[in-house]
């Protein structure tokens, strides 16, 4: 079912509430990475170019104490947004009240206003993250239209997404949200074949839902990272001191039985005596020897994965192949990333988190069809779950 998009709305002379995802890294008032602010620009620009008043809401970090408030104000974000838009942006250090209401009522068409971090409302009884009905209703009363462009929080029902939406006649998706729904949705529901999923990371438990949902749809599911060794244990192989979730071994057996040949496990590993870049390390086939832990996939596995990937038409990648923040165990993740970057005629999707960091580090980000802005949200989408933030957007 197609969703209503911001470009379907008549925004002229309207107060347009836009839920953006400005949850950027900030230290001592300095923004470490402004990707998420840049990603929100097309939607904001559309509203102001078409004569709307853009009123922006976002959370930033988690607020548990008064001290958190001092560190996590959206003021630096509003200042950076002003630089990016090349126009003044009004910042209101409040999440409700007269100052905010007056500033919104004084806005002219094409103006932009950022209100304070929505999670400041969490200090007094988790009103934002608990989707307090009165708060959602209040925020909805500040605008005429609502646009949700925050995919990063789509898997959570908060007052600033679901709460506002439930008090508005209709809610539209912003362009970033539209892109996420399109690429992730097509990959899960209508992929071009061969469809290959690459799943890494430490824990099988984080990816069980994704594997189960993709088994009937994918042609190959390539497994890397620490979760490999729970599957090894399920096969009765020795795993040395490698990471293992003993309570998930039976589940791993079940997944292997369901997936059959589709599930491709590493055939060799880079192993080390301890979790340290400078520890003695070597490459071993199959079983992991006693006294060693596996920290990356080996060269034979890399070759096999590349061979499977070369014909792929749709690829979804979530999670590193090894401990890629340590140079001696980064090869698997980097080689898989390069193989994705080299694909010419395929839709390639990276699902947030560490895989995104790897793509940026490799300089292949511009060769990937779509890099998701929401790690947790993209995982739940790939699991086939209904995301409350997306469900609250009106259908066309």
UniProtKB/TrEMBL annotation:
GO biological process, one term: gluconeogenesis
Pathway: Carbohydrate degradation; glycolysis; pyruvate from D-glyceraldehyde 3-phosphate: step 2/5
Binding residues for ATP: 207, 325, 352-355
Membrane-spanning intervals of the chain: none
GO CC annotations, alphabetized: cell surface; cytosol
Keyword hit for Cytoplasm: yes
Keywords of this entry: ATP-binding, Cytoplasm, Glycolysis, Kinase, Nucleotide-binding, Transferase
Residues bound to substrate: 21-23, 36, 59-62, 119, 156
GO molecular function: ADP binding; ATP binding; phosphoglycerate kinase activity
Amino-acid positions noted as binding (2R)-3-phosphoglycerate in the UniProt annotation, renumbered to this chain: 36, 119, 156
Enzyme Commission numbers on file: 2.7.2.3
Database matches in InterPro entries: Phosphoglycerate_kinase, Phosphoglycerate_kinase_CS, Phosphoglycerate_kinase_N, Phosphoglycerate_kinase_sf
Pfam families found in the cross-reference section: PGK
Catalytic reaction(s) noted: (2R)-3-phosphoglycerate + ATP = (2R)-3-phospho-glyceroyl phosphate + ADP
Subcellular compartments: Cytoplasm
Tree of life domain: Bacteria
PANTHER family: PHOSPHOGLYCERATE KINASE, PHOSPHOGLYCERATE KINASE 1, CHLOROPLASTIC-RELATED
Family the entry assigns: Belongs to the phosphoglycerate kinase family.
Subunit note: Monomer.
Protein name from the UniProt record: Phosphoglycerate kinase
Species of the source: Lacticaseibacillus brantae DSM 23927
Taxon lineage: Bacteria, Bacillati, Bacillota, Bacilli, Lactobacillales
Protein encoded by which gene: pgk
């Amino acid at each position: 079912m197609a969703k209503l998009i911001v470009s379907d709305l008549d925004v002229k002379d309207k107060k347009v509430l836009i839920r953006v995802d400005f949850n950027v890294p900030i230290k001592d008032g300095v923004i470490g990475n402004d990707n998420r602010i840049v990603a929100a620009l097309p939607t904001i620009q559309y509203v102001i170019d078409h004569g709307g008043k853009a009123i922006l809401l976002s959370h930033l970090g988690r607020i548990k104490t008064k001290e958190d408030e001092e560190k996590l104000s959206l003021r630096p974000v509003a200042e950076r947004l002003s630089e990016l838009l090349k126009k003044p942006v009004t910042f209101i250090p409040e999440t409700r009240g007269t100052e905010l209401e007056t500033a919104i009522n004084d806005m002219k068409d094409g103006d932009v206003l950022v209100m304070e971090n929505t999670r400041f409302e969490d200090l007094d009884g988790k009103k934002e993250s608990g989707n307090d009905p009165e708060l959602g209703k209040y925020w909805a009363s500040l605008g005429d239209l609502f646009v949700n462009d925050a995919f990063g929080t789509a898997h959570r029902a908060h007052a600033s997404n679901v709460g506002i939406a439930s008090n508005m006649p209709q809610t539209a998706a912003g362009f970033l949200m539209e892109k996420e729904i399109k690429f992730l949705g097509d990959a899960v529901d209508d992929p071009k074949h061969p469809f290959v999923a690459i799943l890494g990371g430490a824990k099988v438990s984080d990816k069980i839902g994704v594997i189960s949902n993709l088994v009937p749809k994918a042609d190959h599911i390539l497994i890397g990272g620490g979760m490999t060794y729970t599957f090894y244990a399920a096969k009765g192989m020795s795993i040395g001191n490698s990471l293992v979730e003993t309570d998930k071994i039976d589940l791993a057996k079940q997944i292997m039985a369901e997936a059959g040949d589709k599930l491709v496990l590493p055939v060799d590993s880079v192993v080390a005596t301890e979790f340290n870049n400078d520890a003695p390390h070597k490459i071993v086939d199959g079983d992991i020897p006693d006294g060693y832990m596996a920290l990356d996939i080996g060269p034979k596995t890399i070759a096999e994965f590349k061979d499977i990937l070369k014909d792929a038409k749709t690829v979804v990648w979530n999670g590193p192949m090894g401990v890629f923040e340590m140079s001696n165990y980064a090869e698997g993740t980097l080689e898989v990333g390069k193989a994705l970057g080299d694909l010419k005629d395929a839709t390639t999707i990276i699902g947030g988190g560490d895989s995104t960091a790897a793509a940026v580090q490799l300089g292949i980000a511009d060769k990937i069809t779509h890099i998701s802005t929401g790690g947790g949200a993209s995982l739940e989408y790939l699991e086939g779950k209904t995301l409350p933030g997306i469900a609250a957007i009106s259908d066309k």
